[in-house]
Structures are given as structure tokens and as C-alpha cells.
Amino acid sequence: MTIRDWQQLSPPAAAGEIHRRAQANLRPEQQQAVLAWLRPESELAAALAAAPRDTPLAGTPFLAKDLFDVAGVPTRAGSTFLPEVRPTPAHDSALVAALTQRGAVVAGKTHMHEFAYGITGENPHYGDCEHPNFPGRTTGGSSSGSAAAVAAGIVPLALGSDTGGSVRVPAAYCGLYGFRLTPRDAWVRDAIPLSPSYDTAGWFTATAADLRAVNDALLGPTTVTREPRGCYLEMPGLDPDVSDACRTAAASFTAHATREVAEQLLRGFAPGVETYNTTVALEAWDYHRPWAERYRERYSAGVWQRLNRSHTITAAQRVAAEADTSAVRALWAEYFLTHDFLILAASPTAAPTKTESTLEHRMRILALTAPASIGGLPVLTIPVPLPSGLTTGLQIVVQESLSPVVNWMLKRCRQEPACRRFLS
After folding, report:
1. What is this structure's pTM?
2. Which CATH number fits the domain that encloses residue 226?
3. Which residues belong to the active site?
């Protein structure tokens, strides 16, 4: 169901349908893994009825990743103890409030990789989020519950965040459209942080039309006055089927990068993974420092290991990360003097199984996603079908959230229900 379909339902019918779909479309253990809180049906119906009707998203139900505050609901951020060190919020996060002002209604909150410090959607506290259509395979993370909920058809819109790919990767794995904004803007500043230098707000929809409607409502419509200029950069490390699919999909929009541009970008992006990991480890520890040691046993082993990495980072590594950050941002600035967008693969593989979700796999993902994260750039993700029935995606990296390139891309996409294929 699209946003328009949901808007045609009466408030009681929409509230009932959300609860019905949550039970019917998710196995019991996945209900616990995906949904951190679901608004009671009668309360949700009342909120939908009270939503202003003269607004662009009137009556659109959405779910919020559980690092955005909803008034009166504890924010856990995928952990078991955050409500013990942080009071229950009295106000909605800025992004939740912005959607509400535009007529959308929060229907609940979604689970996530603990403290957003992971790319797989695994969570030992609440359960691992699995792809709704391919049990045993991950949704990707950290915005795992939000992606699963949209892919399962529970709501047409869900909020995520993206530090190193946490919107882009789940969108690619789950066959969704996704959009991430920029670091330190008003819609992410009041969310639970992982790394403020890279954290961005974002959202998922199942169709290009819905994503355009949300973007227009939140950011304002944009108009393309000329044919945008861009290119496709094929990064190393892609599985053959992903490489073939992304190359073919990207050709619908633009040509390959010239040899000179490709060599320059690949050389400049090479330090990205190490730069990203160093910066995130240092900034994450700064946030967790007041309580980390006291609650050490209540962190999952993987998240604690990543947090603890900050203690092993040398002064030389800090200096290198700062220098490489400046270099990558200068490279992006130079690129955008002559281009409007860059297309990259959003994932090196289709959605992996739990046993395939290794450290090596995480590094392969970050090699694709870290360049835009370090650049602090907005990214549109478009799903790309694979012969297996699984999906990957394209990252369309642009210079600013209001770039008309985003709507230009979405206008050229249309949904094919059997596989969410986009066609030019």
C-alpha cells in the first residue's frame, strides 16, 4: 500500500490494518525484533483522526527508529539500559515533530542495531532483524527494524539514521528507496548519536513516488532546469551479480566515469574505511564515556569491542584521520565543480546470512559507503533487483539535500510490483 492508499482508509481502519499487518506479516520472534513499541490501536486511530487534513502527508502512518524521541515513550536505541541513564522524553524529536506538523502520525518505534554501532541489524537483546521475504538473511542495519517494517508493508514510511550506511544498506538489501540527509542538521541533532561528524537522519519508502512525496513535504519541491551531469564509479569488491546489475541499472541514468575521474576518485577514497572507523570510535566513546564502564556487562560483545577500540587509537592515527577527512572532502568539492551526482553501488552483495555477516563483510560495505559519509553528503538509494530475487541498490550521491537531482532520479523511476524494479 502506498501513502495514497493509506490516506484513503478511515482512521479506525488504518489503525487496525497496521496492527493486523504487524501480526500477519512478521513471525512472532520478528515482531519482537522489529518493533520497539507499537501505539495501541484505539490511541492510533484517535491520532489519525486528529491529524490535520490540509497537509501533504495527512493521515500517513510512520514508524520511527528508536533513537528518535517520541514524547512519553522511553528511547532505548537498541540497548537495555539507556532509559536508566536518560529520562523518558517529554517532547518529540525534531524530525518526528516535523512529520506530525505535515499530517503524518507516528504509529510506533522500531528496533535497531545496538546504539546504531553496526551494519547488520543483529541485536542480542531483542533479536536479529531478518529480511521479511527471505528469512535467515539480514535486513542490514543499523536501521534494521525500520527497513523491515516498510518491506513487510506494515507502514509506508519509516525513519532511519545513516552514519556509515544505515539507511543505504538496509534499503539495498530490502528493495526499498531510501534517503539520508546531512550531519549536524536540526533533524539529527536531538537523536541519540553514534558519531556526530557523520550521523544523518533519513527515511525509507517502498516506492519512488512515496519517497518523492515525503521529500517534497519535508524539504520542499525542486525543479530541474537542465540535464544533470554525473557518472557511475564501479568500486572494487562487488560480487559478480551485483557488479553486473549495478552497471546495467546505472546506465539508465548516466555513463561510466572516465578513466581519469575514476582513478582520481578511487585513489582519494582508498583511506575511507580507516578514517571512518577511527573517527566513529573516538566520537562514540565521547558519548558513552559517562556510563560505559558502569554498564559494561550490558553492552553486547560486538558493540563493546568497537567502543573499546577508541583506547587503542594513537595520536598518529588521529592526525591521519583528520588529514584524510580534509582530503576526501576536498576531492568531493572538486568533483562537484563539474558534476551534479555520483552513482556507486550501495552494497557489495545481496542480503547476507548471519554467518556471512563477518568483519570482512563489514569492511567491504564501508568501502562503498564511507566516502559519502566522510564527505557529509546526502544520498538517495534506489533498489536494484538481482537474478536471485534478492536486491542490491545504487547510491546517488549529491551535493545538498535540496538537490533537484534527487527528484529527477525519482521521476525516472517507476515501480514494478513483482520485483520493485525501476525503469527509465
Report:
1. 0.96
2. 3.90.1300.10
3. 65, 142, 166
